[in-house]
Design brief:
alpha+beta; binds zinc ion; five-stranded mixed beta sheet
């Protein structure tokens, strides 16, 4: 459909500042803790029986050392930079390019900042070229390079700007810096890593690697044979890959496919962030509103992902969202396809809420009609209003989806559990759900048959995670006892995080508490012949949130994981099985929710055993991202692992580190 109204010039010329970027760039520190409920009685006190042994994980320290850029006096708030909002194949009137405000930080050549370093590749098809310096005066004056498909300097600028924006969204939603799934402070971004139509996150190399390919004349597409297609110019691909890296930092054990949903969740969540992030670019949203006449129940380009990369191979787009719920959840099938069912559910809820909010404005503008007639022109005011609604709503929903990660179990996630996490996290922050966000989400999951296990009804009350069956308060974790580094989103130092972790370990490992937290005594004869390790306190992070109406929430989120090496036999391989819990602790040190995966759960174990017997023990959830409809592998392929499942598990049981590598 043709665009009928050109954007007002003043609107088009102002750089976009996504709300998360504004929050990240302007944040001068946190809020105060909420006025909490009366403190419950301390129940599991220090007089209880001695606890079992536990360990403190390496990642506790990494999180405490996550760098934070401190603005210097005289620093600007933003660095405006130009990007492709989708990819080079979009038209200008669809908002192909935008100037966005990236949170300012002082940069070295690369660019090389506090969390990202963009690296040149010797094999770049556009090389050789000088080191990229975004501080060059002429680039500062022009707000960076003009988008151009074959300008390597722009490629560096594009991956840096999109990565910084995506990171700012996570930082704003979670209220803290996000540590990586590896100890180094920076993630490497390699725009021209290999000549394959794909991209990947590789934890071992601490990098996001973007591939490229050349169009083959025999593909019969409307592009010249030999034309270059770069995945680093696709906004969707950059946001998708970075989300894998951020999710890996938040839930490191989601890299193991212990059930078919784990990989689907990683892929679906990465697509979801990419899709909702587009809505932070005004001209893109404006174009969507125009093309759909403000009726987002109409599917179209806006419900598709990754265009140019797919075009060059003869496909229209890589993935397509199904708003009608035609495709239902099934535990079989390729992980990206199952992930798309998750994305479709959330986008369906987005459309429901948008329609609810936009309805009165459309009725006002049309003299009482529910929608515009086919081809009817929209007034500039109507477009602006609807653009504003869609944009704000997507930001809110994206924040909800990211915040829910803190409420996910530490291992073995299912899509149904993600719904429970979404509902609980949102209800914690926004008790009064006046626009029925949660109802819309529940309905969208129901429509696709994504049902959590062990929930009596798909109602909000039934879906919220439960508190422990008796009150538990952890002494020493009251907000007043915690030490911060200027901001309640940052613990003072590694010693403070280790202190908190020890206190948590001492509580969760009390014999009366073990089962509540999904744990068990490793020496329990029940486990023979399996071997069980002591529980590990993997992470302790602050949970600091500001809701849409200024509501504040503060607490801690903890991951406790225990490993069990399940012996093989009866035709089944040996494999690693994990239990434990995510624990949400309130501002008074009280345990508010325990999201447990019991290490003794035989039902879950038998399911996992069947699954690993089919796919292999200890399979990585993210063998490769699929940025093409064909089954081309990512390159370079994941390193070969010590093949035989039983052998691999045995090796690891002897204490050898697993190959911590992931392509995504
Ligand atoms: Zn992926």
């Amino acid at each position: 459909m043709e665009e009928r109204i050109a954007p007002p010039p003043d609107e088009a010329s102002v750089p976009d500042t996504p709300p998360a970027t504004a929050a990240a760039a302007q944040s001068q520190g946190g809020g105060s803790p909420p006025a909490g409920d009366p403190q419950p009685d301390a129940a599991s006190g220090a007089e209880a029986a001695p606890s079992i042994h536990f360990r403190l994980g390496d990642r506790l320290r990494w999180a405490a050392q996550t760098p934070r850029y401190e603005r210097k006096s005289g620093d600007p708030v933003y660095r405006p930079l130009q990007i492709y909002t989708i990819d080079p194949s979009r038209r200008r009137r669809e908002g192909q390019m935008a100037e966005i405000n990236v949170p300012f930080e002082r940069l070295r050549k690369g660019p090389n900042g506090s969390r990202f370093r963009v690296i040149k590749s010797e094999t770049s098809p556009l090389g050789p070229y000088d080191d990229v310096d975004l501080n060059e005066t002429r680039l500062l004056i022009t707000n960076g390079r003009q988008p151009a498909p074959t300008d390597p300097v722009f490629h560096h600028q594009m991956v840096y700007a999109v990565a910084m924006t995506t990171y700012a969204i996570f930082r704003s939603a979670l209220g803290r810096e996000v540590s990586w799934g590896f100890p180094a402070p920076k993630l490497n971004l390699v725009p021209h890593a290999f000549q394959v139509a794909n991209a990947q996150y590789v934890r071992d190399r601490e990098s996001l690697e973007f591939g490229w390919y050349r169009v083959e004349a025999s593909n019969q597409v409307d592009m010249p044979g030999g034309a270059y297609i770069f995945s680093c110019l696709s906004h969707d691909v950059i946001a998708h890959e970075l989300t894998h890296a951020l999710l890996d930092g938040l839930r490191v054990r989601f890299d193991r496919a212990s059930n078919p949903d784990v990989g689907a969740f990683h892929e679906g969540f990465a697509d979801l962030v990419a899709l909702l992030q587009r809505f932070s670019y005004r001209m893109v949203v404006r174009s969507i509103i125009l093309n759909t006449q403000g009726d987002l129940t109409r599917e179209g380009d806006w419900t598709q992902l990754v265009f140019e990369m797919a075009h060059g191979k003869g496909d229209k787009s890589l993935r397509e969202i199904d708003l009608d719920g035609v495709h239902r959840y099934s535990a079989t099938g390729e992980e990206h396809d199952r992930g798309t069912i998750l994305v479709s559910a959330i986008l369906d809820a987005f459309v429901t809420i948008y329609t609810h909010k936009a309805g009165p404005i459309i009725r006002l503008a049309t003299g009482g009609r529910k929608q515009l007639d086919e081809g009817e022109a929209m007034s500039a005011d109507l477009i602006t209003q609807l653009t504003h609604i869609a944009s704000r709503l997507s930001t809110h929903l994206l924040n909800m989806c990211i915040r829910a990660i803190d409420y996910c179990p530490p291992v073995d996630i299912t899509l149904g559990e993600y719904l429970r996490a979404l509902i609980t996290a949102d209800r914690d922050l926004v008790p009064d759900d006046q626009w029925s966000y949660r109802e819309a989400l529940i309905d969208a999951f129901r429509k696709r048959h994504i049902f959590p296990e062990n929930v009596p009804a798909l109602s909000e009350d039934a879906l919220v995670w439960e508190p422990p069956d008796h009150p538990i308060v952890i002494p020493g974790l009251n907000f007043g006892d915690l030490r911060f580094s200027a901001d309640p989103g940052c613990a003072a130092d590694a010693d403070e995080v280790l202190r908190q972790a020890r206190l948590i370990g001492e509580t969760v490992c009390l014999p009366d508490n073990l089962k509540i937290f999904g744990l068990a005594d490793p020496k329990d004869p029940y486990f023979a012949p399996d071997k069980v390790e002591p529980p590990v306190i993997e992470s302790v992070r602050s949970l600091r949130r500001v809701g849409p109406d200024g509501q504040l929430a503060f607490g801690l989120v903890v991951e406790v994981i225990q490993r069990r090496y399940v012996a093989g036999g009866g035709g089944y391989p040996s494999f690693r099985y994990r239990g434990g819990s995510t624990v949400i602790i309130g501002a008074q040190g009280e345990v508010r929710y325990v999201i447990a995966k019991y290490i003794k759960s035989e039902t879950r174990l038998l399911k996992q055993r069947e699954y690993v017997a089919t796919v292999g023990a200890d399979v990585f959830a993210l063998q490769s991202c699929r940025h093409l409809k064909s089954n081309e592998p990512a390159a370079p392929p994941p390193a070969p692992r010590k093949a035989a499942a039983g052998k691999a598990a045995k090796k690891k049981a002897r204490g050898k580190k697993p190959a911590a590598k992931k392509a995504g």
